[in-house]
Amino acid sequence: MIEPFPLVQDVVLIGGGHTHTLVLRTFGMDPLPGVRLTVINPDPAAPYTGMLPGHIAGHYTQDDLMIDLVRLARFAGARIIFDRATGIDRQARRIHLAERPPLSYNLCSIDIGIGSGLPEVTGFAKYGVAAKPLGTYVDRWKTFIDRALPAPIIVILGAGMGGVELALASAHRLRATGSDPQITLIDRAKTVLPALGPSARNTILRELKQAGITLMLGTAAIAITENAVQLDNGTTLPSDFTLSVASASPQNWLSTTGISLHQGFVTVSPTLQSSDPTIFAAGDCAHLSFAPQPKAGVYAVRAAPVLNHNLRAALTGQPLQSFHPQRDYLKLISLGGKNALADKFNLSANGAWLWRLKDQIDRKFMAKFADYPTMPRLLPINPVTGLAEAIGAKPLCGGCGAKVGASALSNALSHLPAPAHTDVISGPGDDAAILAYGTQKQVITTDHLRTTCNDPRLMARITAIHAMGDIWAMGATPQAALAQITLPRMSATMQTETLTEILEEAAAVFRSAGTDIIGGHTSIGAELTIGFTLTGITNTPITKAGAKPGDALILTKAIGTGTILAAEMALAHIPGLILGQAVQAAYASMSRPLGPAAAILAPYANAMTDVTGFGLAGHLLEILEASGTAATITLAAIPLLAGAKDLAAEGYESSLAPEIRAATNYRITAPEAPETALLYDPQTAGPLLATVPANMATSLLATLHANGESAALIGHITKGDPYLTIL
After folding, report:
1. Residue 656 maps to a domain
2. How far is residue 220's CA from residue 230's CA, in Å, rounded to a whole number?
3. Residue 508, phi then psi, degrees to nearest 5
4. Which are the contacts of 19, defined by CB distance < 8 A and separation ≥ 6?
5. Three-state SS for 482?
6. How much is the pLDDT for 37?
7. CATH code assigned at 502
8. How far is CA 395 from CA 4, 237, 402, 653, in A?
9. Which residues have CB under 8 Å from 446's CB, separation 6+?
10. What is the DSSP string of 36-93?
11. Is 285 labeled as catalytic in the residue annotation?
């Protein structure tokens, strides 16, 4: 048997800049055994700067210019952490993060870009918009466009190439929507675009004039209000949208690292190493001390092969390469409409053909992150009959999508003898077994999850919440927890750190629910698996058997996690959908404990369960069977996670979903729709499903909403044999 190589080195990429995205792609095509690769970025997608002016002008959609870091990390075999670095402890080799404990590294690389904000200008932080980082600008621009002002006034601070492109793009977009914009471009310099040749500069000035854009040089903003910009020459300009492209600011935390900086940027050698050889840097945040260059994406792209080689070389003891940036590069400047200006070595040209050239170059770059190469399946040359079918066409899901199917499970459980102890009140069937416990009842359950991602801390949080779902669903208070953890093969140091991450995060989740981890078991295996056995205490357990005709059905949060995670494993790419954003939202939903919702519902629920491995349809049918009732639910009333419907419409589903559908379809009447497919979707750390008296539904929903729960009334219990009607 071929076992996975043990993990022995941590390589951490701080930031999702262009250089790092290309390095990640290369690692996906050519992994380096023994390396755990991590990328840290606050957002699940990173914008490609080359297409920004085209997006502002309306030529590209938002997903056209976004590199989906979640899909990319999956392809690269990397873990992605949605957070922001705040410092580096070089002695301990730990990266400090804004919202979680520090992360260890053997090598790290920084590619965090720059900011273009003006923190020194009064009012900018509240009323201004910075062009970089791009994500915030893109969102604010969409909101501004949606306001549809008839005569919008825009002030752009900074008349470099970026400011010129965005001014022309803004004018084009607003006029295309029927507006009559007034745009002013401001720069403290007295000459516009001095780096361009005379011919190119004259073309730019002509384009600005034709677009009706006012150019003000030799002045700068000193204060910004909600609807005005005050300049240092005493002028006050009205403004509905104030954009800064004026500065190239490094992130402040770099100054705390102790590595050599140049004007706040990381000074790197030809090998792209900082003054600390274990820390590399590339892109706009790096200063090429050996060949200073302007901040331009072309240098970030050209540096990627060198950074990729040098990270591998540093890990394997091989010679490092030097980066040799070109002396000049072809500048393709968008002119608002589908025409562009080219400039290199003081030679220039402009026209629609240059826009087509720029568009071709940009789309070729983005195509690298659209459809990834299919890696070969690990099948023997002459497989035995049935092996390919058993492996299946899709990867095995993690989380609840990896559960054994209901039919196999029920067949196996049918051979168990009845409980012999008199203090065992109920065994298999409910969410948790019920034991006599003095004057109270004790419930006990166990659950584990095959990992869905490479982030042990996140998986620990989700698994702890998922495991407590059975306790909360029975109206009990968690009492004690035992951990069962299987780690993949890794170095002793990484074992300690990974186990610490898991236990720290799980302990924090359990402590917030009023319980603790009191023991457990660990082992080494093929992949990360985390599980917990839990007990809980209650006076009167809520079972699945208490539903009454007329009861309202309340679902406490949205469904769709199985479909979204299955699509992420399949590297799904659907135009108009940024999968990484859907995955981030799904993990946020799974990370939300059910305890607060259970506390609201438990005093009034006649029956309750948590929706997990058998999907909403399967778990609702369990209530109907136990209670001897039927139910009607409204498809449109069921809350869905963002992106789940679109993915279901494209045929994405968990590996367990077909079996759930086959096991339940004969007891369900439902329309053919993507939303129906999601009823068979296994949910990891899914919602509670409660039946409550109909006259209590409105007030309970109001209380749930007031506590931040996205709960919904999805239907009612009816008389009849166990059957589910979906309208």
Report:
1. yes
2. 9
3. -65, -40
4. 109, 111, 282, 283, 300, 301, 303, 304, 307
5. strand
6. 97
7. 3.30.1330.10
8. 17, 58, 10, 11
9. 467, 484, 531, 532, 533, 534
10. EEEEE-SSSEEE-GGGHHHHHHTSS-GGGGEEEHHHHHHHHT-EEE---EEEEETTTT
11. no
The closest alpha carbon to 88, from 249, 259, 275, belongs to 259
Nearest to 131 by CA among 150, 151, 109, 155: 155
pLDDT of residue 4: 73
Q: Tell me if 186 sits within 8 A of 216, measured CB to CB.
A: yes
Please check whether residues 528 and 559 belong to one and the same domain. no
**Which of 108, 285, 397, 400 is an active site residue?**
400
Burial 433-466 (b: 16+ CB within 10 A, else e): bbbebeeebbbbbebbbbbbbbbbbbbbbbbbbb
Residue 29 lies inside a defined structural domain of this protein: yes
Q: Which residue has the higher pLDDT, 248 or 401?
A: 248
- Is 534 found in the same domain as 426? yes
Do 229 and 314 belong together in one domain? no
The rounded distance, in Å, linking the Cα atoms of 86 and 101 is: 11
Distance of CA 72 to the CA centre of its chain: 11
Q: Which residues pair with 351 in a beta bridge?
A: 340
Q: Which band of pLDDT confidence, cut at 50, 70 and 90, is reported for residue 356? A: very high
Report the number of distinct structural domains present in the chain: 4
Residue 234 CA to residue 236 CA, distance in Å, equals: 7
Q: How many CB atoms lie within 10 A of CB 511?
A: 11
Residue 336 CB neighbour total at 10 angstroms: 28
**Residue position matching structure tokens 């790197």:** 268
Of 406-420, 439-453, 599-613, the range with the highest mean pLDDT is: 599-613
3-state secondary structure of 653: coil
Other beta carbons within 10 Å of 230: 17
Give domain status of residue 367, yes or no. Answer: no
CB proximity list for 525: less than 8 A, separation 6 or greater: 486, 487, 488
Q: Which two tokens stand for residue 359?
A: 């568009």
Arithmetic mean of pLDDT, 119-144? 88
Concatenating the DSSP letter of every residue in 582-631 gives HHHHHHHHHTS-SHHHHHHHTTT-SEEEE--TTHHHHHHHHHHHHHT-EE
Nearest 5°: CA angle at 290, between 287 and 291? 75
What is the token pair recorded at 269? 């050698």
* Of 162, 116, 160, 111, the residue nearest 135 (C-alpha): 116
Q: Are both 596 and 491 inside the same structural domain?
A: no
Q: Which of 674, 694, 686 is nearest to 711 (CA)?
A: 686
Q: Do the domain assignments include residue 660?
A: yes
CA dihedral 173→176→177→181, nearest 10 degrees, is 60
CATH number, domain at 168?
Answer: 3.50.50.60
**469 is in which domain, residue-wise?**
418-538
Task: Estimate the crossing angle of helix 69-76 against helix 18-29, to 10 degrees.
Answer: 30
| 662 shares its domain with 524 | no
Of the candidates 517, 441, 444, the residue with the CA atom closest to the CA atom of residue 482: 517
Question: Is the alpha carbon torsion for 289, 295, 299, 300 positive or negative?
Answer: positive
Q: Is the peptide bond before 133 cis (omega within 30 degrees of 0)?
A: yes
Are 572 and 677 in the same domain?
yes
The last residue of one of the domains, among 538, 564, 599, is 538
Q: What pLDDT band is residue 1 in, cutting at 50, 70 and 90?
A: very low
Angle at 396 between CA 391 and CA 398, to 5 degrees: 160
**Per-residue model confidence (pLDDT) at position 659:** 87
Domain of 645, CATH number, reads: 3.90.650.10
Do 214 and 276 share a domain, yes or no?
no
Residues 577 and 467 in one domain: no
* DSSP helix/strand/coil, 265: strand
Domain end position, chosen among 244, 262, 284:
244
Distances (CA, A) of 129 to 121, 179, 239, 497, 655: 12, 21, 12, 40, 44
